[in-house]
Design brief:
- This protein has 95 residues and is mainly α.
- It is 77% helix and 4% strand.
- It has one domain (2-81).
- It is built from 2 helices and 2 strands.
- A two-stranded antiparallel sheet has the order 1-2.
- α1 (8-14) crosses α2 (16-81).
- The longest helix has 66 residues, at 16-81.
- Residues 76-95 are annotated as: Disordered.
Length: 95
């Protein structure tokens, strides 16, 4: 990159005002990168929150289904030992 003074490096080395502008430009770039980094961090945090909510929802659903399935199993086991439609375990009468 060239300036009216020659290369940027030469100008920065010999011209204090050019050096100041280069420092200011670098600081502006740093600020822009900091802003972009903050946005990326916010996006990451939002995604982690969404994923955490989804995982918790899945865990809650899994737990509810487990309770439901266990209740069904208990009811089926109770029906095997109790009278079903007037029949008792071991009863051989036709339907």
């Amino acid at each position: 990159m060239s300036t009216e003074y020659g290369s940027v490096q030469e100008a920065v080395a010999t011209q204090p005002d050019v050096r100041i502008r280069e420092i200011e430009r670098a600081m502006d770039q740093r600020d822009q990168l900091g802003t972009e980094l903050d946005k990326l961090r916010a996006d990451r945090d939002r995604m982690l929150t969404d994923m955490s909510f989804e995982i918790n929802t899945r865990d809650d659903t899994h737990q509810a289904l487990s309770v439901f399935i266990n209740d069904l199993k208990d009811k089926l086991n109770n029906n095997k030992t109790n009278s079903i439609g007037g029949l008792r375990p071991g009863d051989t009468r036709p339907f």
